[in-house]
Amino acid sequence: MRQSEETEFYQQVLAICLTAGRLMIVGGSEMYRVEDTMLRIARNAGVRDPRVFATPTGVFMSLAGGELSQMIQVRERNMNLELVDRVNGLSREFANHELDFAELRDQIEAVETTTPSFPLWLQVLGAAALSATLMVLFMNDYDWINFPAAAGVGGLGFLAYVWFKQMTRIRFISELLATIVMGLLTLLLHRLFPVTTVANILIGGLMTLVPGLALTNALRDLFMGDLLSGVVRLFEAGLTAVSLGAGVALVIKFFGA
Amino acid sequence: MIIWLQILINITFSYIASVGFALIINVPHRALNFAGINGVLGWMVYWVSFRAHFGRAIPNLLAALALGIFSLLFARIKKCPVTVFNIPGLVPLVPGVPAYLAVRALLIGETATAVTMLIRVAVVTGAIAVGTLLATMLMERDYHLRRAWRHYKAR
Which of A71, A88, A114 is the last residue of a domain? Predict the structure, then answer.
């Protein structure tokens, strides 16, 4: 009887740790932090010899020297740092004995549904501001003609990206379509106002989608020794770059620059 | 353009850009302002050293190092994971645009441009990663040193 109770407790610990790990990967955390948090939760729950192997597409964990193990698949990954912060905070509260195990379980299960996100209009505004300002910073020639154009294209392109992402489950199609939308918008603007420069507006507008951060994170994972996850993320970044480049190249090919 | 105006524009714009990106990736409310400040610090380090003709790799490394150190400090102040400050701060630096330009040049058939851009992506990404890791290492050393100091004083 005693034995089965213990087994059930261990299964619960596994389930909590895996959910926490999955949420952190969905939120875009580094791999060593994911593994660290999961091990910390398990140790603070009083489990002997926990082991973790986390990759961007799946997490494996075993307890009590490998007697019990579970895995969980991670299907979608995007950036949502509020998730990472929440899970991290909960694990810290658990470590400081501000939460007991049952409370931790309820709260971690609630994190996915209750985590607030900024309203869409604010995100679009953020995308527009980001596109316009970074265009000026990058081009380094302070051109104010393309400033509002980049803001408009960036904001609308981001909106299109969010919309396409809800429509399809295929990963890189939404980037491709959003880029095509941006390309068409830019060309339209250029036809209406010939003083604008297509290349500059596109660079600004694409700022929200370009895989610069994904590349940097991939390299950081590689340097930390998480070779598998580094390679996976490097490849993901490469595919994103390909779909952006392909979208723009298609538009330019068929509608002229 | 006069230099003061340029500095002012660079500071405000890097702040706006970092906060804008922070909104998109859903950074916790309490960290928004610090994420923006972090972006300004990183970008200004990059901008100044780039204008001092340090080339392309060294400014990125220095900026990532500064960003890493400040993110770790902010993380301790605000009790958030380091990533929350680091990622929005890195946004003005990361080589997303060259990556896209490389693919575009390749598809249009300008192979030479594509290779140049790819090498630029590799150099900048490597510099940023090394800078961030150096910052992590320094803070680790700092932590160990402090603990050793406390042990020493307790004895």
Answer: A114
Does B13 contact A216 at a Cβ distance shorter than 8 Å?
no
The predicted complex's ipTM stands at: 0.86
Nearest to B69 by CA among B5, B132, B130, B148: B132
Say whether B20 and A220 touch across the interface (CB within 8 A): no
User: Is the Cα torsion angle B11, B13, B14, B15 positive or negative in sign?
Assistant: positive
User: What is the DSSP pairing of strand A51-55 with strand A68-73?
Assistant: unpaired
How many Cβ pairs within 8 Å bridge chains A and B?
A: 167
pLDDT of residue A202: 86
Total count of domains within chain A: 2
CB–CB contact B103 A242 (8 Å): yes
Say yes or no: A225 contacts chain B, CB-CB below 8 A: no
Query: Do A248 and A145 share a domain, yes or no?
Result: yes
Give A185 to chain B, closest Cα distance, Å. 18
Helix A198-206 to helix A120-139 angle (10° resolution) is: 130
Nearest beta carbon to residue B103 from set A29, A213, A241: A241
Could you tell me if A109 and A146 lie in one domain? no
For residue range A64-104, list pLDDT tens digits in order.
776 788 888 888 877 888 888 888 888 888 888 887 778 88
B69 Cα to chain A: minimum distance (Å)? 16
- Same domain for A227 and A152, yes or no, is yes
Range(s) of the domain holding residue A181: 120-255
Phi–psi pair at B37, nearest 5 degrees: -60, -40
* Residues A124 and A246 occupy one common structural domain: yes
| pLDDT for res A257 | 58
For residue B11, give both structure tokens: 């500071």
In a mutagenesis test of the A interface, which of B9, B25, B67, B91 is the best target, namely the one with the most A β-carbons within 10 Å?
B25
Domain boundary among A55, A80, A114: A114
